[in-house]
Amino acid sequence: MENLKIFQWLAVKRYNWRNYDFSLIIVVFILSCISTFILSRVTNNFSMGKQIFGLSLGFIVMLIVSIMDYHTLCRFCIVFYIAATLMVAATRFSPLGTDLNTNSWRWLDLGPYYFQPSEVCKVVIILTLAAFFNRYEEHEDRNIRSWKTFFLAVLITLIPTGFIMVQSDLSSSMVIIMILVMMLISSGIGARILGPVAAIVIPTVIGFFWYITTPGEKLFLNKYQIERIVGFLHPEEEALGTMFQQNNSVVSIASGKLYGKMLMDTDPAIRNYNNVSVRDSDFVWTPISEEFGFIGCMLILALLSIIIIKCFIAAKRARDYLGMMIAIGIGTMFTIQVFFNIGVTTSILPNTGLPLPFLSSGLTSMLSCSIAVGLLINIGIQPARR
Q1: What is the pTM for the complete model shown?
Q2: Distances (CA, A) of 226 to 99, 177, 207, 236
Q3: For the chain, give me the number of helices (H) and strands (E)?
Q4: Which residues does residue 115 pair with via DSSP β-bridges, in sequence order?
């Protein structure tokens, strides 16, 4: 009887099931298999068990979200937004918060697992901003091309982002800010608003970059963050200091050469990536490169590119404005995280802590990425515009 009700509910939705993107699920599955293989090389069995559990849970969540109408989800975005904001605040201002000895309070200690609210917060902010812009776009008496719209969108973004920065999680904050920027550009708010903002923000960013590179203590930044930036600018002076991990990462990546070491009859214990810490999460691209080589890395980048391209294709083909904005936000999130993660491991960017979608270990990252892909699939199966 319950199964009959479920099928009746799906029928009422009138989804275009022919557009259900199984290819996207296949791409995610392949990346998850690669992740499982790499983590089997670099982590212990307990961590492997958690990763397999996370992958299984992620696929279940992805399939559930893919049949949940994103319009319905956005009706509850204010509830999700408040919950996500409270969670990111709790990492720093509650007994559940923990830094895992990293000097960055990004996690909630939930017993057997550590939950990182900033990862889920990215998806929640995408839904909230999409619903906010859609509300102004749908009503003729509300002008989306106004300073009020701009400042409210910024306020919605900055409240949880402020708590994330208090965690000392600058990297996730930057991802969220880039999501806001892309959604503002795509919202139709217009150059009359964004032009003056860009004229102020761009020189401010340049001035801030100059400020953090000058000697002395800095406001808004922790000592280790300043050291990473200065070390990136002067790598020869910090070869045995803040750049030690990134330098070892580059050596490991280069040692993979064209074909990698996966098929070589050598002990993984003597791989170069063993000299790199957090190689199962933030620096997972390092063992991937050494094991699969240049050709393997290009194939994996192609798979990640497929996900990103499908995001913007979904935005173009979306049934409505709301679906378009959600897809753009998700596409931006994946693009920035892939670029930042690989940029750090190849030492073309300062060291930041961002997971690589579907490849890094971590239950929260897998769940947030799975929710995002589920939303993309749901956007694709919505009925065509009338």
Answers
A1: 0.89
A2: 19, 20, 15, 16
A3: 14, 3
A4: 108
User: CB–CB of 377/70 below 8 Å?
Assistant: no
Q: Work out whether strand 97-98 and strand 114-115 pair parallel, antiparallel, or are unpaired.
A: unpaired
d(CA 363, CA 281): 11
268 vs 35, 278, 290, CA distance in Å? Answer: 16, 16, 10
Q: Look at the alpha carbons of 84, 97, 360, 276 in this order and tell me if their dihedral is positive or negative.
A: positive
Count how many Cα atoms sit within 13 Å of the Cα of residue 119 in the half-sphere of its side chain.
26
Question: Which phi and psi (to 5°) does residue 159 adopt?
Answer: -60, -60
Count how many residues are written for the chain: 386
Burial class (CB in 10 A: 0-12, 13-18, 19+), 117: buried
Measured CA to CA, the distance from residue 260 to residue 295 in angstroms comes to 8
Q: Which phi and psi (to 5°) does residue 267 adopt?
A: -75, 125
Q: For every one of its 386 residues, what pLDDT tens digit does the chain have, with 9 covering 90 and above?
A: 555 455 444 544 678 888 899 999 999 999 999 998 888 888 765 566 777 788 889 999 999 999 999 999 999 999 999 999 999 999 888 888 887 777 778 888 887 788 889 999 999 999 999 999 998 877 665 678 888 899 999 999 999 999 998 877 778 888 999 999 999 999 888 888 889 988 988 898 887 777 666 666 655 566 666 666 666 666 665 555 566 788 888 889 999 888 888 877 666 677 888 888 888 888 899 999 999 999 999 999 999 999 999 999 999 999 899 999 999 999 999 999 999 999 989 988 877 778 999 999 888 899 999 999 999 999 999 886 54
